[in-house]
Design a protein that fits this description.
It contains 6 helices and 2 strands, in the order ααααββαα. By secondary structure, the chain is mainly α.
């Protein structure tokens, strides 16, 4: 596998080949809910699943559970059970999950600046594809 160069030096084309570690970052958050969960935990700190459901909105319990399991498997979130009655569990970002917030915020800034341009391009392309 190719080692990533210093980010300040820029990324050569080859770092995005099939066996490149840089692709891990994109693949880890390929599911839209995973990034929402990471961002929410980053903003609020550890949370119980029910609180995450309420805070995020628009996500069902099954989908949230799947996202939390994926994030836990990828080492971005840790599940913290408490020996209480009734049983209680919360989720918190790991060091890797917390470190991911910086590039996520950069992507958010990019989206704030360019989302309208992207949506306009998609509309133009759809019009062209429809014979327009």
């Amino acid at each position: 596998m190719e080692k990533l160069p210093d980010p300040a030096a820029g990324l050569p084309e080859l770092v995005y080949t099939a066996d490149c570690r840089a692709r891990v970052a994109f693949e880890v958050l390929a599911n839209r809910w995973d990034s929402v969960v990471v961002f929410t935990l980053g903003a609020t700190g550890p949370m119980r699943p029910r609180a995450l459901l309420a805070r995020i909105g628009g996500i069902g319990p099954k989908v949230l559970n799947e996202a939390l399991r994926r994030l836990e498997r990828n080492g971005l979130v840790e599940r913290r059970p408490y020996a209480e009655a009734p049983p209680r569990v919360d989720y918190a970002l790991t060091e890797a999950g917390t470190a991911l917030l910086t590039p996520m915020r950069a992507m958010g800034a990019w989206a704030a600046r360019y989302a309208d341009d992207v949506l306009d391009a998609q509309d133009r392309y759809a019009g062209r594809a429809d014979g327009g």
